[in-house]
Design a protein that fits this description.
Elements lengths: L4 H12 L15 E4 L14 H4 L17 E4 L2 E4 L12 E3 L4 E2 L2 H10 L5 E4 L9 E4 L7 E7 L7 E2 L7 H10 L6 E3 L3 E4 L9 E6 L11 E6 L8 E4 L11 E3 L5 E3 L26 E3 L5 E3 L28 H19 L8 E2 L4 H10 L33 E6 L2 E10 L2 E4 L12 E5 L12 E10 L13 E5 L30 E6 L13 E8 L15 E5 L15 E5 L5 E9 L10 E5 L4 H8 L1 H4 L5
Length: 627
């Protein structure tokens, strides 16, 4: 209904004294004024990693973030997945092009290739009308109080300001064709006199941030708290740029206030303001990978940090909850926020749209799963390889020995299926049929009873391997299947996980090396030994002009007492993440002067070769993410 004239007069009088930051862009038409208060800004230069910014990470950088179920990671970038690659189980959805798709993933995959075909509604296509987003301000196509017409509803409704933020504002602007999203949710907004307004109800909306249309977000009807409780948005346009010294430049060219960088909110729309952070503002969590996520994403049953620590130590995990229970939790969260500022707001009366974020999580649960990197607990004290204590049975179920003739000269790492990783300098393709792979070996003088000996089918050396510089010192060994088996079965082995991101582990993290290498006095070692080392940054200081940061990893100890040595080549440097999952972070490659502090061991950085490995062994074998 329309406002009474007296109410309109009072509203305009109250708001006319407030100077809106974007008010001067307004055209001269007969409108009523409505203004939201502006927020203070504080510079945050000290939170942003300038060196990281040069790499131009966005929401499609799969070394920093997870790809969506309708995308796959190729060469560090999330790209469109073909629809037929989506899981078949799911709820059918309708697109704006009038076509029905068997699942939400199929539609999003199709939209990824054809952006004009967006989500319309849950279920099959009907004649109920279309979803639409518009502004109450008829004088501008880029700002206003947001109105929405849901599929199957007769009239437009306003959005509640409660729970409305930059995530939702960005999606609204994407929906209206503004590719860089929103500039702000605050400013001077207008509504036309002829707009029919229902002042007793508004829609509460909750988005996740991956959506391209508000139709994908969860809607519920709510009692309206008055006109100052309605959501507005100012969509981004290049002429709204802030001065460079006061703004953060997003990868997509958008400028946002510098104070909004590293606050856990995707203000840029491409998430580039949250991916290169040295610290996070209050209300957000810093992932080890330098990504800030909102606090409410912690312990929500979905891993948001690519390093996984946001779901560690959680009690009463939300994993497996249904869409209805998730909406219920969203409703409860909203009520907690309402209590302080809007005690008059009542609970939602009706849920009007399906929660497609819950559907997205469900689709992810249908993707292939792998089992790697999880074993029984190991010793709490870490002994060194050089002079350390022998390993016990089951300590390193991914460790293998590569035997050439009557000698074991190198180690390797079992990564699943019929595949073993090792160093390129350890093997030659022409000798593939001469090699044996020994699993469960502890001592090659006193052989234990559970050793399994496997023959080799072929050896794949990285095509860029340089035997002089040790660049790309990585190789794959394919185990020969036994005549009675369709697949390789290593009964006593567990594969180590292959890392897909170079940010899973950081300098100073503790990791474990193992092998049959010599002592620092060149004394032979016959038993499998292990020790703990720390990842080291800036290894060029030790090996000038021959250390390649992208392809190599350094690890050691301050006093050099723990180190890999001759004979350990090809063996594992494994690191354990916050969820107690073990990854093969490095392959023993080269080094000088075993056991001296100024000569740490150098390892092939396996994360740099994820695509190369997956090309040969198949991505579903080594990753449940970004496939």
């Amino acid at each position: 209904m329309k406002l009474a004239p007296v109410v309109l007069l009072l509203l305009c009088f109250c708001l006319s004294s407030c100077e809106g930051k974007y008010g001067k862009r307004q055209k001269n038409q007969v409108t009523k004024k409505y203004e939201l208060p502006s927020a203070p800004a504080t510079p945050q230069e000290d939170l942003v990693d300038a060196k990281c910014l040069l790499k131009k990470y966005t929401h499609r950088s799969c070394s920093k973030v997870f790809c969506q179920p309708w995308e796959k990671c190729v060469d560090g970038t999330c790209i469109c997945k073909l629809p037929y690659q989506c899981p078949k189980d799911g709820t059918s959805v309708c697109s704006t092009n009038g076509k029905s798709f068997p699942t939400y993933c199929h539609l999003k995959s199709f939209e990824c290739l054809h952006p004009e075909a967006k989500f319309l509604n849950n279920g099959t296509c009907t004649a109920e009308g279309e979803f639409s987003v518009s502004f109450s301000d008829k004088s501008s196509d880029s700002r206003g109080i947001v109105t929405v017409k849901l599929v199957g509803q007769d009239k437009k409704m306003f959005i509640c300001k409660n729970n409305w933020g930059m995530v939702e504002a960005n999606v609204a602007c994407f929906d209206l064709g503004f590719q860089q999203g929103a500039l702000d949710t605050q400013g001077r907004f207008y509504y036309s006199e002829d707009l029919q307004i229902n002042s007793t109800e508004c829609l509460q909306v909750r988005c996740h941030g991956f959506e391209t249309s508000l139709a994908e977000c969860a809607f519920s009807k709510q009692s309206a708290p008055g006109y100052r409780g309605l959501a507005g948005v100012l969509c981004y346009a290049p002429d709204a740029d802030l001065p460079a010294r006061e703004s953060f430049r997003c990868v997509n060219g958008k400028h946002v206030p510098l104070a909004r960088a590293c606050n856990g909110v995707n203000d840029c729309g491409d998430q580039s303001d949250e991916l290169c952070c040295k610290g996070c503002q209050r209300g957000s969590l810093l992932c080890k990978s330098g990504v800030c996520i909102p606090n409410q994403h912690q312990c929500n049953g979905e891993v948001d940090c690519i390093t996984g620590e946001d779901e560690v130590g959680c009690e009463g995990s939300h994993v497996g909850r249904s869409a209805s229970s998730t909406l219920s939790r969203a409703s409860q969260d909203g009520l907690l926020r309402k209590g302080a500022g809007h005690p008059e707001v009542q609970e939602e009366t009706e849920i009007l749209a399906a929660d497609m974020d819950t559907e997205r999580k469900r689709i992810k649960s249908l993707l292939p799963r792998i089992s790697c990197g999880v074993k029984r607990p190991v010793h709490t004290r870490r002994k060194r390889i050089v002079g350390g204590r022998p390993a016990q049975a089951g300590d390193f179920p991914w460790q293998v020995a590569i035997k050439d003739g009557d000698k074991i000269n190198c180690g390797g790492i079992y990564i699943g299926g019929c595949w073993v990783l090792t160093a390129a300098h350890c093997v030659r393709p022409s000798r593939a049929h001469h090699y044996q792979v020994w699993t469960s070996l502890l001592d090659w003088i006193k052989l234990n009873s559970n050793i399994i000996v496997e023959r080799v089918e072929r050896v794949i050396i990285h095509e860029g391997y340089n035997g002089t510089t040790y660049q790309n010192d990585i190789a794959l060994i394919e185990i020969k299947k036994r005549s009675s088996q369709k697949e390789c079965v290593f009964s006593n082995s567990i594969p180590a996980c292959v890392p897909w991101s170079p940010y899973l582990f950081q300098p100073k993290d503790s990791c474990i090396i193992s092998g049959w290498g010599r002592e620092k006095d060149n004394q032979k070692v016959y038993s499998l030994r292990w020790g703990e080392v720390n990842l080291i940054s800036n290894c060029s200081q030790f090996y000038q002009n021959r250390y390649y940061e992208k392809e190599m990893e350094c690890a050691g100890t301050a006093d050099g007492s723990i180190d890999a040595c001759k004979g350990d080549s090809g063996g594992p440097l494994v690191c354990v993440d916050a969820s107690n999952v073990t990854y093969v972070w490095g392959i023993v490659s080269w080094g000088e002067n075993c056991g001296k502090p100024e000569f740490p061991g150098v390892y092939t950085k396996v994360a740099n070769y994820f695509d190369w490995i997956s090309y040969h062994v198949g991505r579903p074998l080594i990753s449940q993410h970004n496939i």
